[in-house]
Design a protein that fits this description.
The complex is a heterodimer of chains A (318) and B (302). Chain A is an all-alpha fold. Helices cover 72% and strands 0% of the residues of chain A. In chain A, helix 3 crosses helix 14, helix 5 runs parallel beside helix 9 and helix 5 packs antiparallel against helix 11. Chain A starts with 8 loop residues before the first helix and ends in a 5-residue tail after the last helix. The N terminus and C terminus of chain A are likely disordered. Chain B is an all-alpha fold. In chain B, 77% of the residues lie in helices and 0% in strands. Chain B has 16 helices and no strands. The radius of gyration of chain B is 26 Å and the shape is globular. The N terminus of chain B is likely disordered. The chains are: A mainly alpha (318), B mainly alpha (302). The interface between A and B is large, with 105 and 99 residues.
Chain lengths: 318, 302
């Protein structure tokens, strides 16, 4: 568009003020628009992230500036059985819970993809565990896992007569570990199911029709159409799920606080215990930083999941 | 599809060609076993903790702790004693108010920041815009569990320790990436021609944003708002680490640290507190559930 030689009436009447002209200067406008978001993220995310990595190399405690001590914190962690235990349980928790969430969530998504009455109402209900604050539903689980008044024990002992005594859900290490994983799976199913449902709905029905004409069984249709078509979305949802399960804090803190005998500490709860409750900021930061390699791995996983998706769809890079 | 194909399809899907009557019954039974039964189990398990929470809140203690004489799944004489205790003997109303304040404050701050950012990235198009977008998106992948220790020291430096303001300022770190991502998608769906017309007519960029783009992006803003509100209501670790005094705590933290005293847990009051703390989010969510589900599925499809 070329500049008009004759000023239109509007321009003559309304000379924009210097402020308006400043805001029409594109670089200035871009900076102004990005400033709040980028500013917040720099001050409360990037700077603390850097500070956290720095703290991990110091012996800072609450109320006292630390000095640089090199890798001493990490050397100490490597010799600390509690840290190893937290690493083990964090990986175990993430692996088992992710597997459970995705197996059950995928199943639920396939179920929800059928036609039945009150479909949208049921979808809304199914999302509830994901909406309600984790700590509050974790408290419900704590009560469900109560050693004396557990409703599960009641069902097993008094109704079904499958056991003679109450289940000690949170009193010993392995039952406590699995109890937490069960609660985590319960909370994670809705998100996985709804996300995968979105993916299922993008698969063209003509693929299934073609397969049925070729005589494919329902298992074959799942194996050769549904599953490969869902791979890209599975990769993304799973990356998110892995990152947030591995760094989970609330559920464990609310139900066991890392007990019994520190058997259910995740790296995040251990970092809180050492860093905030124990006051050893440097050591806590080192524990938190030790989560980063795992997270980088998960993000790369996501990146390749996305790259593969583009390749599958034959899209240009956008 | 031709009629012939339909016939072939019908035949192949019912290879065991039975009489039409038994076939219909067969497929209905199959449907019940394959779909309705598992679905019912899922719903039962997903909802049971809420039922248990609700029923515990209104059970008198005598029934609560005696499964031999009372059926634990039902209440014979419901009571409001736990709710009354919660509302009048504890600081629960105050915690609710703080949580509400923090959630609303951080939601508005995040919406403001991410709308502008999404507009800049999607519509003002500059050389580095994809990288800025990617950077903001990556920020979402940095979990609070890594940040809370250094953030605590930052909060202390700023003199914001123990203040709800700290939470309002910190929550946008996980809300802004999410909202920006969501809003970029929304802005993309608004035809660019509308803005070009306005530019030609002499509107300033800010006028375009305020008068044209934002009104069209209202559904996106609503879903970003709901997400932000529920996420900040839900947040726990920052609230636990940055707030010390009982009065300034948010509901999830306060229930866990203030309501649990000694070895005897007041399960009735605890569950009533959990139920009451879940209600605002659940209500808010049920009002906008369609937005919520569609934006969630939309965000995943993107």
């Amino acid at each position: 568009m070329s500049v008009t030689t004759l000023p239109t009436r509007g321009q003559v009447l309304r000379q924009p003020g210097w402020l308006a002209r400043l805001f029409d200067y594109k670089p200035f406008l871009i900076v102004m628009c990005l400033a709040p978001a980028v500013g917040l993220l720099l001050v409360f995310l990037t700077y603390p992230l850097g500070l956290g990595i720095w703290l991990a190399f110091t012996d800072t405690t609450i109320g006292q500036r630390g000095i640089y001590i090199g890798l001493e914190n990490f050397q100490y962690l490597l010799k600390d059985p509690l840290w190893w235990n937290a690493v083990f349980y964090s990986i175990f928790y993430t692996a088992v819970a992710t597997f459970g969430k995705f197996a059950l969530g995928f199943w639920l998504a396939l179920l929800l993809n059928n036609h039945f009455p009150f479909k949208s109402l049921i979808r809304a209900i199914v999302l509830l565990p994901w909406i309600v604050p984790t700590v509050l539903s974790a408290l419900a689980f704590w009560w469900i896992y109560d050693p004396q008044f557990s409703i599960i024990s009641y069902l097993l002992v008094d109704v079904l007569h499958l056991r003679d005594s109450n289940v000690d859900f949170l009193g010993s290490p392995w039952p406590a570990r699995f109890s937490l994983i069960a609660a985590n799976i319960w909370r994670g199913i809705p998100f996985v199911a709804i996300s995968l449902l979105a993916g299922l709905q993008t698969i063209s029905p003509s693929l299934y029709e073609a397969a049925m004409l070729d005589g494919a069984t329902s298992w074959q249709r799942f194996r050769y159409i549904t599953f490969p078509m869902m791979m890209p979305i599975l990769a993304i949802v799973m990356t998110f799920s892995i990152i947030f399960t591995f760094t989970d804090f609330q559920l464990v803190y609310a139900i066991t606080r890392g007990g019994p005998v520190n058997s259910t500490h995740l790296l995040a709860t251990l970092a809180f215990q050492r860093g905030i409750a124990g006051g050893e900021l440097g050591e806590g930061a080192a524990i938190a930083v030790s989560m980063i390699p795992f997270l980088v791995f998960a993000t790369l996983f996501s990146y390749f999941g996305l790259a593969r998706r583009k390749w599958q769809q034959g899209e240009a890079n956008d | 599809m031709t009629d012939q194909n339909v016939q072939v399809l019908a035949q192949s899907s019912n290879v065991a060609s039975a009489t039409p009557d038994t076939m219909a019954w067969d497929s209905r039974a199959r449907r019940v076993v394959m779909i309705y039964l598992p679905l019912a189990c899922f719903i039962l398990i997903l909802l049971f903790p809420f039922y248990w929470m609700a029923i515990t809140s209104f059970k008198p203690n005598a029934e609560l702790l005696n499964y031999k004489e009372h059926n634990p799944f039902w209440i014979t004489s419901p009571t409001l004693a736990h709710v009354k205790h919660l509302l009048f003997d504890t600081s629960y109303p105050r915690w609710l108010k703080t949580t509400m304040l923090v959630a609303i404050g951080s939601t508005f701050l995040s919406l403001f920041a991410s709308t502008l950012a999404a507009y800049a990235i999607e519509r003002l198009r500059f050389r580095g815009s994809p990288y800025v977008g990617l950077g903001i998106y990556l920020a979402y992948l940095v979990p609070p569990s890594i940040l809370f220790i250094p953030l605590a020291t930052v909060i202390v430096q700023f003199g914001l320790f123990d203040s709800p303001l700290a939470l309002i300022l910190v929550y946008p770190t996980f809300l802004v990436p999410f909202c920006t991502w969501l809003l970029i998608g929304y802005f993309k769906s608004i035809p660019y021609e509308l803005e070009e017309c306005a530019l030609v007519d002499g509107a300033t960029r800010l006028q375009i944003l305020w008068r044209i783009t934002l009104p069209l992006a209202v559904p996106g803003l609503i879903s970003a708002g709901i997400f932000s509100f529920t996420l900040s209501w839900n947040e726990f670790i920052y609230a636990l680490a940055f707030i010390q005094s009982g009065a300034n705590k948010t509901v999830p933290v306060a229930i866990l640290t203030e309501l649990i005293t000694g070895d005897v847990y007041q399960w009735g009051a605890l569950m009533a507190g959990s139920l009451l703390g879940s209600l605002p989010v659940a209500l808010f969510y049920s009002l906008f559930v369609d937005y919520y589900v569609s934006s969630l599925t939309g965000a995943v499809k993107e």
